[in-house]
Amino acid sequence: MKGVGMQKQSKLYSIFNGAVILTLAGLFTKILSATYRIPYHHIAGDIGFYIYQQVYPLYGIALQLGTYGFPVIISKLVAEYAVTNRRKEIRGILQVSFAFLFIVGCTIFAFEYIFAETIAEWMGDRKLTVLIQIISFSFLLIPFIAVIRGYYQGLHNMFPTALSQIAEQVVRVGTILYLSIFLIQHGYDLYTAGAGAIFGSITGGITSLVILFLFVFRTKTNSKGVFQRIKKADIKRIFKILVIQGLLICISGMGLLFIQLIDSFTLYSSLTAHGMAEEAAQILKGIYDRGLPLIQLGTVVGTAFSLSLVPVISSAIAKKNLSFVVEKVQLSLRLSLVVGVGAAFGLIALMKPINMLLYGDSHGTDVLQILSLLVIFTTVAATAGAVLQGMGAVFAPVIAVIAGMAVKLILNLWLIPDFQTIGAAIASSTGFAIVAAINLFCLYKKLAVLLVPKKASGGIFITGIAMVVLLQSYLFCLHHFAWSNGLDTSKQVVETGAGVLIGSLFYLFIIMKQNIFTEEELRLLPMGSVLAKYVLKNKLRR
């Protein structure tokens, strides 16, 4: 009995470690995916950035399907049979999954490749045709990548997925930066440079596939034969799970991607349709797209902490410990709000120096400040959506995303003609506010308790506003007294770095003073023990 207990404990430890590895790999790839756009913007400029960002969402869909959507569902199917060591059934699941994804991948590839010129015309720029055709090839890699990742994740071996994700992004980013520099230096136009950058999606995908195949070839199996006969009933069941659950997970995680996709089809085309010159519209769209890396980084930081509690919540749901679930859901939402508000308000306050430091000028600062509000809504929406999925409410996050994106599309069409990129920024923030609101409402209906106390939420927003006032005062004093002779790069680095440090310390200090988190709650979070000691000292002084 003792040996069985030890085995169970060892297995749980293995699963936990696997989840940590996958989370860290995901964080690394998301941070890399956000930061490479900054040097790419310096290489290609606002117009080059516009070209790349117009077609990027199409690649993002392939990435979502092959990394975060279908591998999760396949892993669940594999895990069901791996428990009883039913290897033949697992082989059957992989065959059906591959067949389904092969059909999906080939269909999307054919549609994008054949109708690339039509899609480019819908975007308002026929020169994007070749870039869309290049992206279409990435969908042919999905069945191989998703099935192999799903197989190993189902066996609780997260290392192949993690390594392939990291290698894919490193090679993709390396290809983007190298080819864009090479092509521009050799006199090619920005569309050709953009095609070279988009080619990184292919080199990255192939790298991921090579690594995954190396793991497959190293894996020893006792199963004879390549193909496994599968009952029609099992085929229908697997297909149904892949279609319904796979698509639900993909859609619920594509909110930010859909915002970019809607902007790709409506922003530039709307600007030119209402009399703006093509080059001016391209520059304006390129400036607007500067906000994406900052939003992504803010969202990654915000969700990294709050989503660390989701496995704890899922475990409590399985044990039907409702009071514990409520307690941890409230904590995760408070945490997401604290980090989201802090990141968003900090970006709003420091956007001008950040814009100048990262992109060389302050163009579009007002637009980027409005877009910064997205960090609050994406962080809260992601946290609430993940908890809902853990509770089995898989449809609610999908409905939220669809509703939010419908609002985004309507507002884009309504606001862009009069307010240009400011209208698009307002539409983006409003659309994701709808996503967050629906997720929170559905969660409230599930738990029937107040998710974030009014005192806590009020205190968080007031602290955020106080931080903005402090940072604006800091910038005013700096520019009127210290930097009166003008700014160079070193001064910009000092100004931005010191502003981030001052704002973060002030915000954190006031949040801790308000006792929004208890000592016990802080200890549950990554590096929370340091803050917990501060809270304890604060209590003892009282």
The main pleated sheet reads as: none
Note the overall shape. Answer: globular
Helical fraction = over 70%
Give the percentage of residues in beta strands: under 5%
Q: What Rg is obtained from the alpha carbons, in whole angstroms?
A: 24 Å
As residue ranges, the low-confidence spans are 1-16, 222-227
Secondary-structure element order, as H and E? HHHHHHHHHHHHHHHHHHHHHH
Question: If helices are DSSP runs of H or I spanning 4 or more residues, what is the number of helices?
Answer: 22
> How many E strands?
0
The SS-based structural class is: mainly alpha
N→C terminal distance: 50 Å
**What is the residue-mean pLDDT, rounded to a whole number?**
85
Which properties best describe this structure?
mainly alpha; 22 helices; 84% helix; 542 residues
